[in-house]
Each structure stands twice: as C-alpha cells, then as structure tokens.
Amino acid sequence: MTARLPRTTLALLFLGLFGVLEAPTLSCRNEEGDAVDWFTFYKLPKRQDKEGRETGLEYLYLDSTIRSWRRSEQLMNTSRSVLGRTLQQLYEAYASKGNDTAYLIYNDGVPKSVNYSRKYGHTKGLLLWNRIQGFWLIHSIPGFPSVPEEGYDYPSTGRRNGQSGICITFKYNQYEAIDFQLLVCNPNIYSCYIPATFHQELVHMPQLCARFNLPKIPGRHLTTLQSAQGQNFLHFAKSDSFLDDIFAAWMAQQLKTHLLTETWQRKKQELPSNCSLPYHVYNIKAIKIAQQSYFSSYQDHAKWCISQKGTKNRWTCIGDLNRSPHQASRSGGFICTQNWHIYQAFQRLVLYYEDCN
C-alpha cells in the first residue's frame, strides 16, 4: 500500500518546484538581451590624434553564437551595450531584494575613488547567481561597475586605454569551485549581497564580503570550470605569497605552450620577454584592429594572452594581472579556454611581439 503524503508536504513541494521554475535565468547577455553561454569584449582605446573619431567607448564583441569579432554599433556607456544588457539583471536583483539571488562586485579601483589598495588582489569582476545558475564577469576596467543602486554607468577613466573582459554563464554547481578561487585572489569587494541560504556551500565569499580575517591561503590554485553549455575553462588563481610572474613561472609551463602576452606595458614597469624556461613568454607590442589601424601596448590596459601561432596547444586566457615587477607580488588570476573561435579572434589582433634578447 502506497503511503499518502500530507497536504502540507505536497504544498511545500509544489511551492518549492514553483520557486525553481519561476527563478530568473541569470546568464551573460548579448546586445539584444538574449542569453549566451559566454562572451568576450575588447574595448578600443581613445585615439590621441586630431583625426581620430574614436571616443574610447567603441568595442569589439564575440560570443558563443558567432565565429569572429564584430564591431559593435553600441557604445560601452549605454545600457544597450553588452555590459549594460548583462548588468541589467544585477539591478533587477538589487531592486527585488529577494533571498534567492546573490551578487558580489570587486575592483582594486573602487568607483569614484582615487585610491588603490595593494592589500587586495589586482582583480576586477562581478558575480551574480541564484541556486540554478549565474555568471562571472572578469574584466580590466578600473572603477567599474557602479554600485547597483546607481544603475549602469561606464567610468571616464576607462576610456583612454584599451580594456578587455569575458563573461561566462555557470550552473550553480560550479560556484563552490569559484568560491575557493576568489579566496586565493583576495578581491577588493565593495558591494555584495549573499543571503544565508548560500553560506553552507559557499564558505569564503561571505567571509570576503564581510572582510573577515581569512584562513591560510595557498600560494596558487588551478581549477577546471564548465560553462552552462559544457565549454571547459581553466582558472589560474595566485595569492600574494606566490612571488613570481604568473605567465612565465606558471601558466606557460602548465599549459605547455609558448605564450604571447598583452598587458599594460607602462614604461619602466614592464617585464621583458622571457625565454629562460621550457615554454617562453613574449610581450605583444602592438595590436591590429584593421588593415591600417593599430595601437601600442602602452595604450592598452587589457590583460590577455594566447598560444604562439603554430604551437600544438591553442589557448586564450583573459584576466587580471600585468607583466610587471610590482605585480609579481599581487594576487589575481586568469581564465583560459581552448575555444577555437576565441583563439582565432585574439590571434588576429597581434601585429608584432618582442622576442627575447
């Protein structure tokens, strides 16, 4: 004889299922507002010459539904941009103030502040999630985004130089691994909301959010993440106790590939190309946008690298750190993929790079 469930139990099961079905589908969004598994962008620098029409708000765009860079018709400071569309979900979650959605925003350059703290990682990003899924936006833009109550805005300080970023949609079962990666990176969190319902699985993010004293942090940690649609990513996270160049000392050797790196090459603050280890690291010196259009790494605040053309392993990594002596002692990370379309898009941007002396 089959036992009948009490009416109250049935009601609770129904309400629980209804809540799951009604939970919003949080994900990276394209410029039409449609969900995508991932996207990457390259915000172009502002032209310094008088003939240049660039405002410092134009950007290239690539997502999981297209095959190559598309020059956006939107400007980065509008709510119709890819970042504006994606962050609209943050503002809706903030307005609802529900207990089913969490967010965490971090940047070593806090919006409307001129101070940069070396106490935290050289990291910039945003996470928004519920118990079904969410997204992780990793970018290089100082002072971005504004706190949720102020809505979407793009900082004027993010116009002059090139900027890069990647957004990836993840199922909730990936957030425990992300939680530990953030612990290692030690981000400077300036806005967050993590209801207690998440605290059992996600131990470190609430601690980071509340600025508690953190447990002993490993020098570095590598993890595999899988996007909502099954794309594999590797995430490299290093703490400030790993005192070395993340590219040469770890990433190139781990990925078993020579890397071409594009990071902010400020004068007297760059590391030279490195060929001292089995897998080499070369500095990209100029970025090609079109046949007659290029810009120097000195104008580029982006942080990315790719496998050297012709090598067996074709990796693209996007993240937080520069190749600089000062940043060898900063925490941060990179997320890497072997997606062919992402690799090909970034590879076509390389105009030339610096060989080893």
From TrEMBL:
Pfam families in UniProt: DNase_II (PF03265)
Localization per record: Lysosome
UniProt keyword list: Endonuclease, Glycoprotein, Hydrolase, Lysosome, Nuclease, Signal
GO cellular component: a single term: lysosome
Catalytic activity: Endonucleolytic cleavage to nucleoside 3'-phosphates and 3'-phosphooligonucleotide end-products
One GO-annotated biological process of the protein: apoptotic DNA fragmentation
EC number per UniProt: 3.1.22.1
InterPro entries referenced in this protein's UniProt entry, alphabetically: DNase_II
GO molecular function terms attached to this record: deoxyribonuclease II activity
Main location: other
Keyword Glycoprotein: yes
Function: Hydrolyzes DNA under acidic conditions. Does not require divalent cations for activity. Participates in the degradation of nuclear DNA during lens cell differentiation.
UniProt family annotation: Belongs to the DNase II family.
Name of the featured protein: Deoxyribonuclease-2-beta
Lineage: Eukaryota, Metazoa, Chordata, Craniata, Vertebrata
